[in-house]
Amino acid sequence: MNFYDFTVLNAQNEEIALSDYKGKVILVVNTASECGFTPQYKELQALYEKLEGEDFEILGFPCNQFGNQEPGSDEEIQSFCQVNFGVTFPILKKVNVKGPDAHPLFKYLTQEAPGLLLKDIKWNFTKFLIDSEGHVVDRFAPTTSPTKMESDIRKLL
């Protein structure tokens, strides 16, 4: 099993096969609109604009499991990201990223790249780096600036 075996829903409830991203380096981020790390959207967008022509993609997955910091509807989240940060990378349907109701993709990601203490995602803006063959190659803490990940991403492009 790898990253490409999963499907997700976009904000309009349309199914997206992650196999559509074959050959691209992917950064998966669990996001939130009312978090201290929310300004990372700006850095993520800058990174996306810098690398999007190089087979790179960012997939944002809003999650409300950490301090209820993503209370909005999928439509409200889309608007917030576009208006406040000019986000053009995909912000998908809100999901759970931990616990028994975690989306299967996040169960897989945390199994493949467990955190320092436990597998579970501990907070918003945890990031997973996927290579162009669908393998999880790294996990970054919420405190890791997207800007600091550029060299790791470039090694995979």
From TrEMBL:
<feature type="active site">
    <location>
        <position position="35"/>
    </location>
</feature>
<dbReference type="GO" id="GO:0034599">
    <property type="term" value="P:cellular response to oxidative stress"/>
</dbReference>
<keyword id="KW-0575">Peroxidase</keyword>
<feature type="domain" description="Thioredoxin">
    <location>
        <begin position="1"/>
        <end position="157"/>
    </location>
</feature>
<dbReference type="InterPro" id="IPR036249">
    <property type="entry name" value="Thioredoxin-like_sf"/>
</dbReference>
<dbReference type="InterPro" id="IPR029759">
    <property type="entry name" value="GPX_AS"/>
</dbReference>
<dbReference type="InterPro" id="IPR000889">
    <property type="entry name" value="Glutathione_peroxidase"/>
</dbReference>
<dbReference type="InterPro" id="IPR013766">
    <property type="entry name" value="Thioredoxin_domain"/>
</dbReference>
<dbReference type="InterPro" id="IPR029760">
    <property type="entry name" value="GPX_CS"/>
</dbReference>
<dbReference type="Pfam" id="PF00255">
    <property type="entry name" value="GSHPx"/>
</dbReference>
<keyword id="KW-0560">Oxidoreductase</keyword>
<protein>
    <recommendedName>
        <fullName>Glutathione peroxidase</fullName>
    </recommendedName>
</protein>
<comment type="similarity">
    <text>Belongs to the glutathione peroxidase family.</text>
</comment>
<dbReference type="GO" id="GO:0004601">
    <property type="term" value="F:peroxidase activity"/>
</dbReference>
